[in-house]
Amino acid sequence: MGGGGQQTDRIASTNARFGTYTWEEVQKHTKSGDQWIVVERKVYNVSQWVKRHPGGLRIIGHYAGEDATDAFNAFHPNLQLVRKYMKPLLIGELEASEPSQDRQKNGALVEDFRALRECLEAEGCFKTQPLFFILHLGHILLLEAIALMMLCYFGTGWINTAIVAVILATAQSQAGWLQHDFGHLSVFKNSRWDHLLHKFVIGHLKGASAGWWNHRHFQHHAKPNIFKKDPDVNMLNAFVVGKVQPVEYGIKKIKNLPYNHQHKYFFFIGPPLLIPVYFQFQIIQNMIVHGLWVDLVWCISYYVRYFLCYTQFYGVLWAVLLFNIVRVMESHWFVWVTQMSHIPMDIDYEKHQDWLSMQLDATCNIEQSFFNDWFSGHLNFQIEHHLFPTMPRHNYWRAAPRVRALCDKYGVKYQEKSLYEAFADIVRSLENSGELWLDAYLNK
Protein backbone atom coordinates (compact mmCIF):
# COMPACT_ATOMS: atom_id res chain seq x y z
CA MET A 1 0.00 0.00 0.00
CA GLY A 2 3.00 2.23 0.68
CA GLY A 3 3.17 5.87 1.61
CA GLY A 4 5.83 8.01 3.25
CA GLY A 5 5.71 9.82 6.56
CA GLN A 6 5.43 13.28 5.04
CA GLN A 7 2.41 12.24 2.99
CA THR A 8 0.74 10.74 6.08
CA ASP A 9 1.46 13.88 8.11
CA ARG A 10 -0.01 16.04 5.38
CA ILE A 11 -3.19 13.96 5.21
CA ALA A 12 -3.48 13.94 9.00
CA SER A 13 -3.16 17.72 9.01
CA THR A 14 -5.85 17.99 6.34
CA ASN A 15 -8.14 15.83 8.47
CA ALA A 16 -7.40 17.62 11.75
CA ARG A 17 -11.07 18.57 12.24
CA PHE A 18 -12.61 15.68 14.19
CA GLY A 19 -16.30 15.65 14.97
CA THR A 20 -19.67 14.05 14.45
CA TYR A 21 -21.59 14.27 11.20
CA THR A 22 -25.02 13.63 9.78
CA TRP A 23 -25.60 11.69 6.59
CA GLU A 24 -26.67 14.94 4.98
CA GLU A 25 -23.23 16.43 5.70
CA VAL A 26 -21.40 13.34 4.45
CA GLN A 27 -23.39 13.28 1.22
CA LYS A 28 -22.16 16.78 0.32
CA HIS A 29 -18.64 15.42 -0.22
CA THR A 30 -18.89 13.44 -3.44
CA LYS A 31 -16.88 15.38 -6.00
CA SER A 32 -13.32 14.84 -7.14
CA GLY A 33 -10.94 16.44 -4.65
CA ASP A 34 -13.57 16.40 -1.91
CA GLN A 35 -14.69 12.88 -1.10
CA TRP A 36 -15.80 11.36 2.20
CA ILE A 37 -16.86 7.80 2.90
CA VAL A 38 -18.29 6.01 5.93
CA VAL A 39 -16.98 2.66 7.17
CA GLU A 40 -18.43 1.10 10.33
CA ARG A 41 -19.99 4.48 11.27
CA LYS A 42 -16.59 6.23 11.09
CA VAL A 43 -16.19 9.10 8.61
CA TYR A 44 -13.05 9.27 6.45
CA ASN A 45 -11.77 12.00 4.18
CA VAL A 46 -10.31 10.08 1.23
CA SER A 47 -9.91 13.10 -1.05
CA GLN A 48 -6.14 12.69 -1.41
CA TRP A 49 -5.87 8.98 -0.62
CA VAL A 50 -7.83 8.03 -3.76
CA LYS A 51 -4.74 8.88 -5.82
CA ARG A 52 -2.68 6.32 -3.91
CA HIS A 53 -5.28 3.60 -3.48
CA PRO A 54 -3.86 0.27 -4.79
CA GLY A 55 -7.27 -0.70 -6.17
CA GLY A 56 -7.38 2.39 -8.35
CA LEU A 57 -8.51 5.99 -8.15
CA ARG A 58 -12.15 5.51 -9.09
CA ILE A 59 -13.31 2.64 -6.94
CA ILE A 60 -13.30 4.69 -3.70
CA GLY A 61 -14.79 7.66 -5.51
CA HIS A 62 -17.75 5.52 -6.52
CA TYR A 63 -18.63 5.30 -2.81
CA ALA A 64 -18.11 8.97 -1.98
CA GLY A 65 -20.88 10.19 0.31
CA GLU A 66 -22.01 6.63 1.09
CA ASP A 67 -21.64 3.84 3.61
CA ALA A 68 -18.80 1.77 2.14
CA THR A 69 -18.60 -0.81 4.96
CA ASP A 70 -19.65 -3.85 2.94
CA ALA A 71 -17.48 -2.93 -0.04
CA PHE A 72 -14.56 -2.35 2.35
CA ASN A 73 -15.05 -5.80 3.91
CA ALA A 74 -15.56 -7.46 0.53
CA PHE A 75 -12.34 -6.29 -1.13
CA HIS A 76 -9.79 -6.49 1.72
CA PRO A 77 -8.79 -9.91 3.06
CA ASN A 78 -6.51 -8.32 5.69
CA LEU A 79 -8.72 -5.73 7.37
CA GLN A 80 -6.29 -5.01 10.21
CA LEU A 81 -3.57 -3.95 7.79
CA VAL A 82 -5.91 -1.71 5.79
CA ARG A 83 -7.26 -0.04 8.92
CA LYS A 84 -3.72 1.15 9.72
CA TYR A 85 -3.70 3.12 6.48
CA MET A 86 -7.13 4.50 7.20
CA LYS A 87 -6.30 5.97 10.63
CA PRO A 88 -4.80 9.21 9.25
CA LEU A 89 -7.90 9.67 7.10
CA LEU A 90 -10.35 9.54 10.02
CA ILE A 91 -12.16 12.84 10.58
CA GLY A 92 -15.01 11.75 12.84
CA GLU A 93 -18.04 9.55 13.09
CA LEU A 94 -21.76 9.60 12.50
CA GLU A 95 -23.88 11.33 15.09
CA ALA A 96 -25.43 8.91 17.58
CA SER A 97 -28.90 9.76 16.31
CA GLU A 98 -27.98 8.82 12.71
CA PRO A 99 -28.76 5.30 11.39
CA SER A 100 -25.83 3.13 10.38
CA GLN A 101 -27.21 2.83 6.84
CA ASP A 102 -27.68 5.72 4.46
CA ARG A 103 -30.56 6.51 2.11
CA GLN A 104 -33.29 4.43 3.74
CA LYS A 105 -31.53 1.10 3.28
CA ASN A 106 -33.01 -1.85 5.15
CA GLY A 107 -30.91 -1.98 8.31
CA ALA A 108 -32.10 -5.46 9.27
CA LEU A 109 -31.10 -6.87 5.85
CA VAL A 110 -27.68 -5.23 6.03
CA GLU A 111 -27.01 -6.57 9.53
CA ASP A 112 -28.18 -10.07 8.60
CA PHE A 113 -25.88 -10.06 5.58
CA ARG A 114 -22.92 -9.03 7.72
CA ALA A 115 -23.81 -11.75 10.23
CA LEU A 116 -23.88 -14.26 7.35
CA ARG A 117 -20.41 -13.18 6.27
CA GLU A 118 -19.11 -13.66 9.81
CA CYS A 119 -20.65 -17.16 9.95
CA LEU A 120 -19.08 -18.13 6.62
CA GLU A 121 -15.71 -16.86 7.81
CA ALA A 122 -16.04 -18.87 11.04
CA GLU A 123 -16.93 -21.98 9.04
CA GLY A 124 -13.76 -21.70 6.94
CA CYS A 125 -15.36 -20.68 3.66
CA PHE A 126 -12.63 -18.06 3.13
CA LYS A 127 -9.81 -20.59 3.59
CA THR A 128 -8.03 -21.82 0.49
CA GLN A 129 -7.27 -25.37 -0.57
CA PRO A 130 -3.80 -24.89 -2.15
CA LEU A 131 -4.00 -28.19 -4.06
CA PHE A 132 -7.02 -26.91 -6.02
CA PHE A 133 -5.08 -23.99 -7.48
CA ILE A 134 -1.89 -26.02 -7.98
CA LEU A 135 -3.83 -28.54 -10.06
CA HIS A 136 -5.56 -25.76 -11.96
CA LEU A 137 -2.23 -24.14 -12.88
CA GLY A 138 -0.84 -27.58 -13.70
CA HIS A 139 -3.57 -28.38 -16.18
CA ILE A 140 -2.99 -25.04 -17.95
CA LEU A 141 0.73 -25.71 -18.30
CA LEU A 142 -0.04 -29.28 -19.42
CA LEU A 143 -2.31 -28.00 -22.18
CA GLU A 144 0.44 -25.63 -23.37
CA ALA A 145 2.91 -28.54 -23.41
CA ILE A 146 0.50 -30.85 -25.26
CA ALA A 147 0.05 -28.22 -28.00
CA LEU A 148 3.80 -28.07 -28.59
CA MET A 149 4.17 -31.87 -28.45
CA MET A 150 1.45 -32.29 -31.07
CA LEU A 151 3.30 -29.97 -33.42
CA CYS A 152 6.55 -31.82 -32.79
CA TYR A 153 5.04 -35.25 -33.51
CA PHE A 154 2.24 -34.56 -35.99
CA GLY A 155 3.40 -31.46 -37.85
CA THR A 156 1.52 -28.37 -39.01
CA GLY A 157 -1.26 -29.84 -41.12
CA TRP A 158 -4.66 -28.18 -41.07
CA ILE A 159 -6.35 -30.74 -38.83
CA ASN A 160 -3.51 -30.78 -36.30
CA THR A 161 -3.31 -26.98 -36.34
CA ALA A 162 -7.04 -26.75 -35.65
CA ILE A 163 -6.67 -29.08 -32.67
CA VAL A 164 -3.68 -27.09 -31.40
CA ALA A 165 -5.68 -23.86 -31.69
CA VAL A 166 -8.51 -25.34 -29.59
CA ILE A 167 -6.03 -26.54 -26.97
CA LEU A 168 -4.31 -23.14 -26.78
CA ALA A 169 -7.66 -21.31 -26.58
CA THR A 170 -8.67 -23.62 -23.73
CA ALA A 171 -5.40 -22.92 -21.92
CA GLN A 172 -5.86 -19.17 -22.39
CA SER A 173 -9.44 -19.25 -21.11
CA GLN A 174 -8.54 -21.32 -18.08
CA ALA A 175 -5.58 -19.03 -17.37
CA GLY A 176 -8.06 -16.17 -17.50
CA TRP A 177 -10.11 -17.75 -14.71
CA LEU A 178 -6.96 -18.46 -12.68
CA GLN A 179 -5.62 -14.90 -12.93
CA HIS A 180 -9.07 -13.82 -11.75
CA ASP A 181 -8.51 -15.84 -8.55
CA PHE A 182 -5.13 -14.25 -7.87
CA GLY A 183 -6.42 -10.80 -8.78
CA HIS A 184 -9.12 -11.09 -6.11
CA LEU A 185 -6.50 -12.09 -3.49
CA SER A 186 -8.39 -15.31 -2.83
CA VAL A 187 -5.53 -17.83 -2.93
CA PHE A 188 -2.79 -16.90 -0.42
CA LYS A 189 -2.92 -15.60 3.14
CA ASN A 190 -0.20 -13.13 2.19
CA SER A 191 -1.58 -10.92 -0.58
CA ARG A 192 1.94 -10.23 -1.90
CA TRP A 193 2.00 -13.78 -3.27
CA ASP A 194 -1.39 -13.23 -4.89
CA HIS A 195 -0.09 -10.06 -6.56
CA LEU A 196 3.07 -11.82 -7.80
CA LEU A 197 1.23 -14.86 -9.19
CA HIS A 198 -1.39 -12.54 -10.68
CA LYS A 199 1.30 -10.76 -12.69
CA PHE A 200 2.81 -14.09 -13.73
CA VAL A 201 -0.47 -15.65 -14.93
CA ILE A 202 -2.06 -12.62 -16.58
CA GLY A 203 1.27 -11.30 -17.86
CA HIS A 204 3.44 -14.28 -18.79
CA LEU A 205 0.70 -16.82 -19.55
CA LYS A 206 -1.77 -14.41 -21.20
CA GLY A 207 0.10 -11.30 -22.35
CA ALA A 208 -2.10 -8.83 -20.48
CA SER A 209 -1.73 -6.35 -17.60
CA ALA A 210 -2.54 -6.90 -13.92
CA GLY A 211 -2.84 -3.15 -13.32
CA TRP A 212 -5.28 -2.71 -16.20
CA TRP A 213 -7.36 -5.65 -14.97
CA ASN A 214 -7.46 -4.35 -11.38
CA HIS A 215 -8.58 -0.90 -12.50
CA ARG A 216 -11.46 -2.25 -14.59
CA HIS A 217 -12.57 -5.25 -12.62
CA PHE A 218 -12.74 -3.80 -9.13
CA GLN A 219 -14.94 -0.98 -10.40
CA HIS A 220 -17.22 -3.62 -11.89
CA HIS A 221 -17.47 -5.40 -8.54
CA ALA A 222 -17.95 -2.20 -6.57
CA LYS A 223 -20.85 -0.96 -8.70
CA PRO A 224 -21.97 -3.74 -11.09
CA ASN A 225 -24.18 -2.79 -14.03
CA ILE A 226 -24.26 0.87 -12.98
CA PHE A 227 -23.72 3.37 -15.77
CA LYS A 228 -20.75 5.73 -15.37
CA LYS A 229 -19.32 3.50 -12.62
CA ASP A 230 -19.05 0.00 -14.09
CA PRO A 231 -16.73 0.04 -17.13
CA ASP A 232 -18.18 -3.29 -18.28
CA VAL A 233 -21.45 -1.61 -19.30
CA ASN A 234 -19.63 1.04 -21.31
CA MET A 235 -20.50 -0.40 -24.72
CA LEU A 236 -18.77 2.38 -26.70
CA ASN A 237 -22.12 3.23 -28.32
CA ALA A 238 -22.05 -0.10 -30.17
CA PHE A 239 -24.88 -1.51 -28.05
CA VAL A 240 -27.64 -0.19 -25.81
CA VAL A 241 -28.33 -2.35 -22.75
CA GLY A 242 -30.95 -2.62 -20.05
CA LYS A 243 -34.27 -0.80 -20.10
CA VAL A 244 -33.19 2.75 -19.28
CA GLN A 245 -30.36 3.45 -21.73
CA PRO A 246 -32.24 2.38 -24.88
CA VAL A 247 -35.11 4.75 -24.15
CA GLU A 248 -32.67 7.54 -23.26
CA TYR A 249 -30.80 7.08 -26.56
CA GLY A 250 -34.04 6.81 -28.52
CA ILE A 251 -35.46 10.05 -27.11
CA LYS A 252 -32.17 11.83 -27.89
CA LYS A 253 -32.26 10.38 -31.44
CA ILE A 254 -28.86 8.75 -30.97
CA LYS A 255 -28.29 6.19 -33.72
CA ASN A 256 -24.62 5.25 -33.96
CA LEU A 257 -25.73 1.81 -35.16
CA PRO A 258 -29.13 0.26 -35.90
CA TYR A 259 -29.68 -0.86 -32.32
CA ASN A 260 -32.89 -2.70 -33.20
CA HIS A 261 -30.57 -5.19 -34.95
CA GLN A 262 -27.94 -5.36 -32.21
CA HIS A 263 -28.90 -8.91 -31.24
CA LYS A 264 -27.79 -9.90 -34.77
CA TYR A 265 -24.59 -7.90 -35.19
CA PHE A 266 -23.57 -8.87 -31.63
CA PHE A 267 -22.35 -12.16 -33.11
CA PHE A 268 -19.97 -10.30 -35.42
CA ILE A 269 -18.56 -7.46 -33.31
CA GLY A 270 -19.10 -8.75 -29.76
CA PRO A 271 -17.65 -12.18 -28.95
CA PRO A 272 -15.09 -12.35 -31.80
CA LEU A 273 -13.54 -8.90 -31.37
CA LEU A 274 -13.57 -7.97 -27.67
CA ILE A 275 -10.24 -9.55 -26.70
CA PRO A 276 -8.24 -9.49 -29.97
CA VAL A 277 -9.19 -5.91 -30.89
CA TYR A 278 -10.61 -3.77 -28.08
CA PHE A 279 -8.89 -5.31 -25.05
CA GLN A 280 -5.61 -5.79 -26.91
CA PHE A 281 -5.44 -2.11 -27.85
CA GLN A 282 -6.65 -0.91 -24.45
CA ILE A 283 -4.14 -3.04 -22.52
CA ILE A 284 -1.12 -1.80 -24.46
CA GLN A 285 -2.31 1.82 -24.32
CA ASN A 286 -2.99 1.59 -20.58
CA MET A 287 0.43 0.17 -19.76
CA ILE A 288 2.23 2.89 -21.71
CA VAL A 289 0.07 5.84 -20.66
CA HIS A 290 0.12 4.90 -16.96
CA GLY A 291 3.72 3.72 -16.88
CA LEU A 292 2.99 0.13 -15.88
CA TRP A 293 6.47 -0.97 -16.86
CA VAL A 294 6.55 -4.12 -14.72
CA ASP A 295 3.33 -5.26 -16.36
CA LEU A 296 4.81 -4.42 -19.75
CA VAL A 297 7.84 -6.63 -19.08
CA TRP A 298 5.61 -9.54 -18.06
CA CYS A 299 3.50 -8.95 -21.18
CA ILE A 300 6.54 -8.90 -23.46
CA SER A 301 7.75 -12.15 -21.90
CA TYR A 302 4.54 -13.81 -23.09
CA TYR A 303 5.06 -12.69 -26.69
CA VAL A 304 8.75 -13.67 -26.65
CA ARG A 305 7.85 -17.15 -25.37
CA TYR A 306 5.01 -17.58 -27.85
CA PHE A 307 6.97 -16.58 -30.93
CA LEU A 308 10.10 -18.53 -29.90
CA CYS A 309 7.90 -21.62 -29.60
CA TYR A 310 5.70 -21.27 -32.66
CA THR A 311 7.71 -19.48 -35.34
CA GLN A 312 9.97 -22.55 -35.56
CA PHE A 313 6.93 -24.50 -36.79
CA TYR A 314 4.95 -21.89 -38.73
CA GLY A 315 7.23 -18.98 -39.47
CA VAL A 316 6.32 -15.45 -38.39
CA LEU A 317 3.28 -14.86 -40.61
CA TRP A 318 1.47 -18.12 -39.81
CA ALA A 319 2.40 -17.87 -36.12
CA VAL A 320 0.73 -14.44 -36.03
CA LEU A 321 -2.32 -15.91 -37.75
CA LEU A 322 -2.50 -18.77 -35.22
CA PHE A 323 -2.15 -16.27 -32.39
CA ASN A 324 -5.15 -14.28 -33.61
CA ILE A 325 -7.27 -17.38 -34.23
CA VAL A 326 -6.64 -18.44 -30.64
CA ARG A 327 -7.51 -14.94 -29.39
CA VAL A 328 -10.81 -14.95 -31.31
CA MET A 329 -11.74 -18.36 -29.90
CA GLU A 330 -10.82 -17.27 -26.38
CA SER A 331 -12.81 -14.06 -26.84
CA HIS A 332 -15.97 -16.03 -27.66
CA TRP A 333 -15.49 -18.12 -24.52
CA PHE A 334 -14.86 -15.08 -22.35
CA VAL A 335 -17.76 -12.97 -23.62
CA TRP A 336 -20.44 -15.66 -23.36
CA VAL A 337 -19.36 -16.69 -19.86
CA THR A 338 -18.96 -13.21 -18.41
CA GLN A 339 -22.04 -11.67 -20.00
CA MET A 340 -24.49 -14.50 -19.31
CA SER A 341 -24.70 -13.37 -15.67
CA HIS A 342 -24.84 -9.61 -16.27
CA ILE A 343 -26.27 -8.37 -19.58
CA PRO A 344 -29.75 -9.88 -19.01
CA MET A 345 -29.91 -8.36 -15.52
CA ASP A 346 -30.88 -4.88 -14.31
CA ILE A 347 -28.64 -2.15 -15.79
CA ASP A 348 -29.30 1.38 -14.61
CA TYR A 349 -27.84 4.52 -13.09
CA GLU A 350 -26.85 4.68 -9.41
CA LYS A 351 -29.69 3.73 -7.06
CA HIS A 352 -27.66 3.59 -3.81
CA GLN A 353 -28.79 0.10 -2.85
CA ASP A 354 -27.40 -2.03 -0.05
CA TRP A 355 -24.60 -4.45 -1.01
CA LEU A 356 -26.78 -7.57 -1.18
CA SER A 357 -29.61 -6.02 -3.22
CA MET A 358 -27.22 -4.28 -5.61
CA GLN A 359 -25.27 -7.45 -6.37
CA LEU A 360 -28.40 -9.63 -6.75
CA ASP A 361 -29.98 -7.11 -9.15
CA ALA A 362 -26.88 -7.24 -11.33
CA THR A 363 -25.99 -10.95 -11.23
CA CYS A 364 -27.47 -14.42 -11.59
CA ASN A 365 -26.17 -17.97 -11.21
CA ILE A 366 -25.88 -20.86 -13.64
CA GLU A 367 -26.65 -24.42 -12.60
CA GLN A 368 -23.80 -26.28 -10.95
CA SER A 369 -22.14 -29.20 -12.69
CA PHE A 370 -18.53 -30.34 -13.04
CA PHE A 371 -18.47 -29.00 -16.61
CA ASN A 372 -20.14 -25.68 -15.77
CA ASP A 373 -17.73 -25.14 -12.87
CA TRP A 374 -14.69 -25.82 -15.07
CA PHE A 375 -16.00 -24.08 -18.19
CA SER A 376 -16.84 -20.85 -16.36
CA GLY A 377 -14.07 -20.86 -13.76
CA HIS A 378 -16.82 -21.21 -11.12
CA LEU A 379 -18.35 -17.94 -12.34
CA ASN A 380 -21.56 -19.92 -12.64
CA PHE A 381 -21.69 -18.94 -8.94
CA GLN A 382 -21.66 -15.29 -9.95
CA ILE A 383 -23.90 -14.22 -7.05
CA GLU A 384 -21.64 -15.66 -4.36
CA HIS A 385 -18.56 -14.39 -6.14
CA HIS A 386 -19.91 -10.85 -6.24
CA LEU A 387 -21.01 -10.91 -2.61
CA PHE A 388 -17.71 -12.38 -1.40
CA PRO A 389 -15.02 -11.65 -4.04
CA THR A 390 -12.12 -12.80 -1.82
CA MET A 391 -13.73 -16.20 -1.13
CA PRO A 392 -11.86 -19.05 -2.88
CA ARG A 393 -14.06 -20.24 -5.70
CA HIS A 394 -14.05 -23.87 -4.60
CA ASN A 395 -16.16 -22.78 -1.60
CA TYR A 396 -18.94 -20.93 -3.43
CA TRP A 397 -21.17 -24.02 -3.35
CA ARG A 398 -20.99 -23.99 0.46
CA ALA A 399 -22.13 -20.38 0.66
CA ALA A 400 -24.89 -20.60 -1.99
CA PRO A 401 -27.69 -22.20 0.13
CA ARG A 402 -27.11 -19.69 2.92
CA VAL A 403 -27.23 -16.77 0.50
CA ARG A 404 -30.40 -18.10 -1.10
CA ALA A 405 -32.05 -18.42 2.33
CA LEU A 406 -31.18 -14.83 3.21
CA CYS A 407 -32.59 -13.63 -0.11
CA ASP A 408 -35.81 -15.56 0.48
CA LYS A 409 -36.14 -13.97 3.92
CA TYR A 410 -36.09 -10.45 2.50
CA GLY A 411 -37.74 -11.03 -0.86
CA VAL A 412 -34.57 -10.43 -2.88
CA LYS A 413 -34.72 -12.37 -6.16
CA TYR A 414 -32.06 -15.09 -6.43
CA GLN A 415 -31.90 -16.25 -10.05
CA GLU A 416 -30.39 -19.51 -11.31
CA LYS A 417 -30.50 -20.66 -14.94
CA SER A 418 -29.28 -23.45 -17.19
CA LEU A 419 -26.21 -22.69 -19.30
CA TYR A 420 -28.25 -22.74 -22.51
CA GLU A 421 -30.91 -20.44 -21.05
CA ALA A 422 -28.24 -18.02 -19.83
CA PHE A 423 -26.63 -17.83 -23.27
CA ALA A 424 -30.00 -17.35 -24.96
CA ASP A 425 -30.90 -14.60 -22.48
CA ILE A 426 -27.94 -12.52 -23.68
CA VAL A 427 -29.40 -12.39 -27.17
CA ARG A 428 -32.98 -11.95 -25.93
CA SER A 429 -32.00 -9.04 -23.68
CA LEU A 430 -30.15 -7.30 -26.53
CA GLU A 431 -33.20 -7.78 -28.77
CA ASN A 432 -35.54 -6.37 -26.10
CA SER A 433 -33.27 -3.38 -25.51
CA GLY A 434 -33.11 -2.77 -29.26
CA GLU A 435 -36.89 -2.75 -29.50
CA LEU A 436 -37.14 -0.26 -26.63
CA TRP A 437 -34.66 1.98 -28.45
CA LEU A 438 -36.56 1.78 -31.74
CA ASP A 439 -39.88 2.57 -30.10
CA ALA A 440 -38.43 5.60 -28.31
CA TYR A 441 -36.54 6.69 -31.46
CA LEU A 442 -39.64 6.65 -33.62
CA ASN A 443 -42.37 7.69 -31.20
CA LYS A 444 -40.97 9.88 -28.43
The proportion of residues forming helix, as a percent range, comes to 55-70%
Largest sheet: spatial strand order? 1-5-4-3-2
As residue ranges, the low-confidence spans are 1-16
> What is the total domain count?
2
Decide which structural class fits the backbone: mainly alpha
Radius of gyration: 23 Å
Largest sheet: 5 strands, mixed
How many distinct beta strands?
7
How much is the average pLDDT? 94
Distance between the termini: 51 Å
Q: Strand fraction band?
A: 5-15%
- H/E topology pattern: HEHEEEHHHEHHHHHHHHHHEHHHEH
Shape: globular
List the defining traits of the structure above.
Cyt_B5-like_heme/steroid-bd, 444 residues, Flavocytochrome B2, Chain A, domain 1, two-stranded parallel sheet, lipid biosynthesis, mainly alpha
